[in-house]
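Below is a filled-in request sheet from our internal design queue. Each sheet records the structural input a requester submitted and the sequence that came back. We keep these sheets so that new team members can see what a complete request looks like end to end.

REQUESTER: design group, bay 2
PRIORITY: normal
MODE: inverse folding
CHAIN LENGTH: 115
BACKBONE (tokenized):
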């Protein structure tokens, strides 16, 4: 299932990136567009990471944290950029923390697997 979610996340990152580059470029200020692009960039980074972890058949609960963290991190940036609702900026760090926890869990599980 990791490969499925990774591929879906990657496809959506490309679609959102194209949407931002073409449809939103003339509608959003450069700093708001940069916020949107940050969401796309982090989504693609994590899609590629999940793809690699899934292809390697690596088992870690950290994978779930990476996935959910990315949904929250990138999703909140997308909604913030599109709606201007500033309170959503307070949600973004929660996604970032979940991503960090996910990476730490993956690292610890990888270390245990090699011992």
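RETURNED SEQUENCE:
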């Amino acid at each position: 299932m990791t490969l499925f979610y990774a591929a879906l996340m990657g496809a959506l990152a490309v679609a959102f990136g194209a949407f931002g580059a073409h449809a939103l470029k003339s509608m959003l200020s450069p700093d708001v567009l940069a916020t949107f692009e940050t969401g796309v960039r982090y989504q693609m980074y994590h899609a590629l990471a999940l793809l690699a972890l899934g292809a390697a058949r690596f088992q870690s609960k950290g994978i779930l944290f990476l996935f959910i963290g990315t949904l929250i991190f990138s999703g909140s940036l997308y909604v913030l950029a599109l709606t201007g609702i500033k309170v959503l900026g307070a949600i973004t760090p929660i996604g970032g923390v979940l991503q960090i926890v996910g990476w730490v869990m993956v690292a610890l599980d990888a270390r245990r697997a090699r011992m």
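SHEET NOTES:
- The chain has one domain: 2-114.
- The CA atoms of residues 29 and 57 lie 42 Å apart.
FILED BY: M.R.
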